[in-house]
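Hey, I'm writing a tutorial for new members on how sequence and structure tokens pair up, and I'd like a real worked example in the thread rather than a made-up one. If someone can provide the structure for the chain below, I'll link this post from the tutorial.
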Amino acid sequence: QNFLFFLGTQAFAVPLLLISSILMAYTVALANSYGRLISELKRQIKTVSQGSLGT
């Protein structure tokens, strides 16, 4: 019962909010970097396929 009461206090909510925010920012940054990587790889594939058509 004391544990459930602790879950409702600010001592639990504030660190939980901070950790959640950090994890969300990390996930967004990771998704952006993967998106840029995919775009670059698509561009490279397009360039290579266009170059091989000419030969």
